[in-house]
Amino acid sequence: MSAAIVKSMSLDEVSELRGVSQSISRHLRTRLERYLNTLPALFAPRKILGEYLQSASDGRVAGAEAHYKHIAQQFESIAKSALGVKSKLGSPLPAINGNLVLSPWQYRHTLAGTEDLVIVSSPVQWILHYQSDYAALDFMQDILRQDVSQDGAKQFLINALTIARLLESSEVLQQLLADLRFPVTIQETEWIPGLPLVLIGCELPLVRPEDDVIAKVTSLSGQPNFEELVDVEQLPSLADPFMEELKSASG
Predict the structure, then answer these.
(1) pLDDT, tens digit, 9 for 90 and up, residues 206-239
(2) 141 CB-contact burial (10 Å; exposed 0-12 / middle 13-18 / buried 19+)
(3) How much is the pTM?
(4) Cβ–Cβ under 8 Å, residues 72 and 89
(5) What is the pLDDT of residues 51-65, one digit of tens each?
(6) pLDDT digits (tens, 9 = 90+) for 14-29
(7) C-alpha dihedral, 185 to 190 to 166 to 122, nearest 10°
(8) Residue 208 in contact with residue 112, Cβ under 8 Å?
(9) Distance between CA atoms of 14 and 33, rounded to whole angstroms?
(10) How many CB atoms lie within 10 A of CB 58?
(11) Integer Cα distance of 191 and 117 in angstroms
């Protein structure tokens, strides 16, 4: 995921570009949700966990034991660091709701020369996870507040580790999503060290104004939140990875 470039901008320019960015964001999210709703079988948790997951389906799945052990080891480490509890996973794992959910991708940014913390979100990148009682952002915020539902946290962690493992083990699925122009990356979040999250989105050039302008924006809105902006001036010069592959293949 490319970082946003800091660009000198006025409040009026930010306001104008925000409207365009939000329109692009809605268009991309709608298209991505349609793709994901067409491909649920490819994300089925049982594909990698088989008999190690509570499910209405029977039968063994090759490699399921290795995937289960990997997830269980990660879970134990993260549960200790993030939740402060020693917890091990039994077998089979509790059932996972295979419905796919998109949550905003956010990071924390301290404004230069201040101690003011702003939550910055991307208009073209989302966290991809299985549905659970916790939405991704609610879970992270509860972690910071140290006010976490243990049962809900356990299920969220299992879900997050499972979808990350599924994509790690499927280069074909990763390639399919990239060919649809929505590549995935697996990245740890600063909110919960050690927890891999699946990020999915469109690789568009992003910008954000200098910190003094962000401070004015957050002061006007009354909320410590800012969304990056799509650099529409750079859109005509975007490369097409598929065409680049064809050129390479043709020698």
Answers:
(1) 999 999 999 999 999 999 999 999 999 999 888 8
(2) middle
(3) 0.91
(4) yes
(5) 999 987 777 899 999
(6) 999 999 999 999 999 9
(7) -40
(8) no
(9) 28
(10) 7
(11) 14
